[in-house]
């Protein structure tokens, strides 16, 4: 990238003005987006304005449209809802209202509008844009604006960010607020161990292992009452004492007749006599602090929105900035709105299959996995079945149990015999192996840690005993759920095939570690939970300093040599700096950070937060940095330090980790069945090709299987990290949001895509 391009990002906004508004229902994470729009806008040289109370503020003008400063968005990240207010607005629906709004914008020289809201809010924005030139000529005719003003504001750029807890906007995998709403629902479902909003209902059912879920897009079959009662009594006979049924708002049967939680309660009480309670969640889902995922999503989308606005021309269509898998994309606003409307119409016309397809791959995938895990009965006989073993390796990570549950149950549904191995490779060598039935893994989804037991021991020294047990227990495939040791263990098994034929069986590694350092995957199970733990702690620590001024906190995070947790937690908690191994730093950098904090203490924000990854530098330890800050900040600020330690590995898994683990387990087991069949020759399994030992990982937009041997070149074994890591590209955002004068590489920004082509091939997470 050239210097000119670097320079361009910093001057892109000079002479331009951006207004940001939130509209429609509150969604957690909106504040993170507002904060990013304001700070990145100011960074590029643009003036940024808050529009208070949504479109109503745009129409009323005056004090409702105020210029934002850097400090005016501090301490916003951890707040739920929207700080600048959001109101549903009748006036803006009328042309007269839009005329007033246009007048207010022209007078302030604002020609860029960033709208954060649901599909209604975004449709309104597009209407406004399409009428813009007519509105200006009317204002000019009426003498309300001059020809000069009209010329200066000749076109209006609009970018939308989808902020809606329902995740019902087509074209985006996750809308701002959805993840936080899932956090609230799961907290409650875990506590009572029923739910509104269909996407929420679906992911919740995967995340808590519900017995049945009713959603509008896929009404139950005509005899659903029989089926439901049969299913509930079956789970009771298998030893389950508790059933969870989740009902989405708007659920109907095949004839369009509403299905309510009361109907279901009456049915269960009447037919089965079970004690049944109904809980309606309502507005709880909108409350509380935003999750780490929503803060990072909001921040990333905010940055992308500013770039899309400032790069916009009269010919670029209004776009929506959204997430596809792990990738920021820009999509034409009206295409997304149209598909979202098509879903509603398809449902009204009872074309339910079409509604499911229009919802997109991610939704379909959730539904398929849910149906398998909840509705398919495991076959009674295991004739002609294969035997697959499941194990955990490495340090415990939240979500491991959800992955084991899903792997075991999908295996049983396929008619296979499933074995579980205790204590990793050590247990495999010692024969700590037992068969798992359906109820063995009951209730595992929401439990933290590793129920099977997990160790860091590698297999190399005990390949002989492992081979003997593979033969003894007739193991024909191995699912290894764990961290970097699971990956290196896989490599050792591959190497061992030269010596032991018994090791020639297919195996797959599912990445599960808080460090997120397994090559071949952008995410690993457990990292999201750890991130939320760090975030919550940082919020509390920042809050503790709200009364005391001029205090800087230095917090040490886990992750080995991998700086993922420190960087992402820094983005989510609004840190001033995050020290990591991947980005070497010197004493001069530390000095610059101290100086930066000294300047910050002169503003209204008299608090600092600094994160340090545990192995970022062997000499600049947490104590060293604390001592340096204490000495240099004397008389200006106090310093405090905090080492978070093992609490980052514990806790109940977040909805993201539960859902991700469940889908990874299902995907791994489906692959395994195919691979075993492929390798079956003359009555035995013989798998000796590189693609029979894989890591299943999320790469940008898809879940992919990659041979462990191919990933070797991409690995820095000394530091146990992949050589290339996608999240390093987010580091500049962290620095810009902390007010550092740095260069922003704009070469990697999203380009406009079309929604129609997006439906078939992208991520399933």
Automatic annotation (TrEMBL):
Biological-process GO terms, alphabetical: canonical glycolysis; fructose 1,6-bisphosphate metabolic process; fructose 6-phosphate metabolic process
Transmembrane segments: none
A Pfam family assignment: PFK
Family affiliation: Belongs to the phosphofructokinase type A (PFKA) family. ATP-dependent PFK group I subfamily. Eukaryotic two domain clade "E" sub-subfamily. Belongs to the phosphofructokinase type A (PFKA) family. ATP-dependent PFK group I subfamily. Eukaryotic two domain clade 'E' sub-subfamily.
Catalytic site positions: 166 (proton acceptor)
Record region (C-terminal regulatory PFK domain 2): 387-765
Gene, per the UniProt record: Pfkm
Subcellular location: Cytoplasm
Region (N-terminal catalytic PFK domain 1): 1-375
Organism per entry: Heterocephalus glaber (Naked mole rat)
UniProt binding sites for ATP: 25, 88-89, 118-121
Catalytic activity: beta-D-fructose 6-phosphate + ATP = beta-D-fructose 1,6-bisphosphate + ADP + H(+)
EC number: 2.7.1.11
Domain of life per record: Eukaryota
Protein name as catalogued: ATP-dependent 6-phosphofructokinase
């Amino acid at each position: 990238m050239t210097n000119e391009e670097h320079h361009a990002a910093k001057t892109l906004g000079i002479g331009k003005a951006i207004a940001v508004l939130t509209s429609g229902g509150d969604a957690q994470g909106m504040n993170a987006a507002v904060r990013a729009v304001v700070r990145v806008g100011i960074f590029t040289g643009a003036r940024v304005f808050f529009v208070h109370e949504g479109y109503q503020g745009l129409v009323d003008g005056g004090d409702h449209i105020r210029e934002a400063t850097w400090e005016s968005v501090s301490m916003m990240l951890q707040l739920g809802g929207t700080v600048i207010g959001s109101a549903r607005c009748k006036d803006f629906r009328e042309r007269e209202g839009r005329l007033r709004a246009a007048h207010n914008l022209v007078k302030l020289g604002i020609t860029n509008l960033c709208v954060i809201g649901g599909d209604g809010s975004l449709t309104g924005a597009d209407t406004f844009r399409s009428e813009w030139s007519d509105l200006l000529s009317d204002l000019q005719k009426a003498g309300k604006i001059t020809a000069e003003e009209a010329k200066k504001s000749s076109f209006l750029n609009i970018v939308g960010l989808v902020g809606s807890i329902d995740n019902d906007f087509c074209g985006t995998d996750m809308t701002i607020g959805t993840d936080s709403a899932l956090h609230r629902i799961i907290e409650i479902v875990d506590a009572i161990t029923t739910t509104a909003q269909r996407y929420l209902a679906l992911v919740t059912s995967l995340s808590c292992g519900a017995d049945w879920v009713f959603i509008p897009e896929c009404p139950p079959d005509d005899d659903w009452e029989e089926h439901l009662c049969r299913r509930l009594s079956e789970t009771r006979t298998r030893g389950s004492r508790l059933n969870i049924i989740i009902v989405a708002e708007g659920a109907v049967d095949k004839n369009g007749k509403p299905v309510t939680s009361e109907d279901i309660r009456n049915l269960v009480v009447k037919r089965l006599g079970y004690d049944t309670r109904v809980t309606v969640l309502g507005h709880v889902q909108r409350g509380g602090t935003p999750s780490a995922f929503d803060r990072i999503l909001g921040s990333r989308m905010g940055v992308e929105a500013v770039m899309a606005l400032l790069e916009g021309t009269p010919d670029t269509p209004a776009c929506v900035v959204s997430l596809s898998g792990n990738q920021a994309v820009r999509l034409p606003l009206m295409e997304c709105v149209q598909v979202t409307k098509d879903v509603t119409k398809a449902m009204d016309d009872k074309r339910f299959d079409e509604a499911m397809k229009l919802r997109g791959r991610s939704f379909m995938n959730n539904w398929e996995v849910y149906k398998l895990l909840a509705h398919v009965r495991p076959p009674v006989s295991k004739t002609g079945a294969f035997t697959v073993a499941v194990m955990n390796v490495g340090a415990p990570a939240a979500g491991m149990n959800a992955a084991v549950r899903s792997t075991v149950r999908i295996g049983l549904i396929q008619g296979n015999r499933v074995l579980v191995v205790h204590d990793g490779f050590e247990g495999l060598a010692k024969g700590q192996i037992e068969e798992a039935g359906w109820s063995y893994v009951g209730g595992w989804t929401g439990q933290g840690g590793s129920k099977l037991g997990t160790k860091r021991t590698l297999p190399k020294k005990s390949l002989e005993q492992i081979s003997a047990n593979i033969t003894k227990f007739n193991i024909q495939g191995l699912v290894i759920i764990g961290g970097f040791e699971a990956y290196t263990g896989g490599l050792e098994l591959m190497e061992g095939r030269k010596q032991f034929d018994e090791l020639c069986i297919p195996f797959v590694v599912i990445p599960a570690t808080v460090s997120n350092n397994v090559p071949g995957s952008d995410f690993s199970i457990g990292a999201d939970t750890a991130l939320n733990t760090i975030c919550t702690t940082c919020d509390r620590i920042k809050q503790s300093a709200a009364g005391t001024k001029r205090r800087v906190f230095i917090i040490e995070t886990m992750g080995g040599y991998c700086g993922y947790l420190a960087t992402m937690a820094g983005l989510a908690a609004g840190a001033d700096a995050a020290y990591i191994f991947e980005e070497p730093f010197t004493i001069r950098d530390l000095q610059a950070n101290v100086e930066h904090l000294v300047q910050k203490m002169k503003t209204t924000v008299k608090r600092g937060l600094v994160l340090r990854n545990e192995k970022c530098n062997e000499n600049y330890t947490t104590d060293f940095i604390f001592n340096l800050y204490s000495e240099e900040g004397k008389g200006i600020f106090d310093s405090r330090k905090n080492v978070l330690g093992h609490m980052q590995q514990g806790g109940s898994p977040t909805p993201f980790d539960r859902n991700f683990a469940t889908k990874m387990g299902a995907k791994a087991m489906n692959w395994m069945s195919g691979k075993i069949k492929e390798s079956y020759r003359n009555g035995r399994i013989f798998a000796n090709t590189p693609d029979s030992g894989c890591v299943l990982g999320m790469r940008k937009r898809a879940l992919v299987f990659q041979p462990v041997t191919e990933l070797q070149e991409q690995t820095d074994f000394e530091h146990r990290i992949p050589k290339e890591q996608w999240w390093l590209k987010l580091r500049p955002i962290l620095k810009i949001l902390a007010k550092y004068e740095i260069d922003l590489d704009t070469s990697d920004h999203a380009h406009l895509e079309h929604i129609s082509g997006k439906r078939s091939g992208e991520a399933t997470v």
